[in-house]
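Explain this record to help learners:
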Amino acid sequence: MPDNQEKRPTDSLEYEPVAPFQTDPKPEVVPAERPADPDPLLKMKTGNATVNHTIDTVNRTVKRPMVAHLIRAAERFNDRLGNQFGAAITYFSFLSLIPIMMVAFAAGGYVLASHPTLLQDIFNKIFANVSDPTLAATLKNIINTAVQQRTTVGLVGLLIALYSGINWMGNLREAVRAQSRDKWERNPQDNEKFWVKYLRDFISLIGLLVALIVTLSITSIAGSAQATIIHFLHLDNIDWLKPAWHLIGLAISISANYLLFFWIFWRLPRHRPRKKALIRGTFIAAIGFEVIKIIMTYSLPKLVSSPSGAAFGSVLGLMAFFYFFARLTLFCAAWIATAEYKDDPRMPGKTHK
C-alpha cells in the first residue's frame, strides 16, 4: 500500500490541528511513604487489659512534643556527663570561696586598722565572753595578725581568687559547650591557645560578675523601693494585699535571674542558640533558680539549728546550692540544644557547629 503518512502544511489553516493521541502508558504514581513512627517507649504486652491500656497511655504520652522534648534533654544531659560536670563545678565553686574569704579577711583588717576603738571593743567582748584564757589569747593573736598582714593576705587572696575564678569560668564554659554542641566530640575550633583561652575566660568572668551585680542590684533596689512605696501609701497594714506584694517581689526576682541565665546561655556556647529555645529555656532556668533559693532560705536555718548542723550546716548548704545551680544550668543548656521549634532562627553572631 502507498505510504499516506506525508504531513500536509498547516500554515494556511484557520484552526489548530488536532494533536495526536498519546498512546504511551502513563507513568505509575507511587504514593509517598509515611514516615515511620518512633519506637514505643514500652515494648511489651501482657495478658491484663488494664496494664496494656496503661502501657499504651504511656507510649502516647511520651510522643507529645513537650514530653518528648523533656526526654531528649534528659538523655543528652545523662549521655554527656551532666552529673559529673555538675559535681566538678560544685568542687571548683567551693574551692573558690577560700581566696574570697582571704580577701574578706584582709578587708576586715583594713577596717579594724582604721578604727582602733572598734578593735579594742572586739578584744573586750572576746575576753568577756570566752571563759578560757588560752582560747581568748589565740583569738586576739589571730585578729592582730589579720590587721598586721592585711596587705599580704589581700594581695595573695586576690591573685588566687582571680586564678581560681578564671578556671571556674573555663570549667563552666566547657560543661555548657558539652551540652550545647551538636556532637559530643570537641571541635577543632575548641583547640585554642592557652593565652587566648585564659583571656576569653577572664572576659567571660568579668561579664558574669557584671551580670551578677546587675541581678542583685535589681533585686535589692526593687525590694527596697517596693517596701518604701507600700509604707508611703500606708498599704502595709492591709492583709489581703500582702500576697500581691509577695508575687510582685517574686516576679522581680525571677526577672533578675532571667538576665543572669540569658547571659550564660547566650555567651558561653561557641554557637548561637535558637531564639525561641533560648528564651524559653532561660525562663525555665530562672524559675528553677528561684525555687532553689526559696528552698535554701527555709531549709538552711533549720539545718544549722542543731549542734552538728551549726558546725557543718553552712558548708553542706553551700555545697548543695552550688550543686543544684550547676545541674540546673546544664540541664537547661541541654533543653535549649534539643529544642525542635518551627521557624526558629539562631541568635545573631558567629556560629560554630
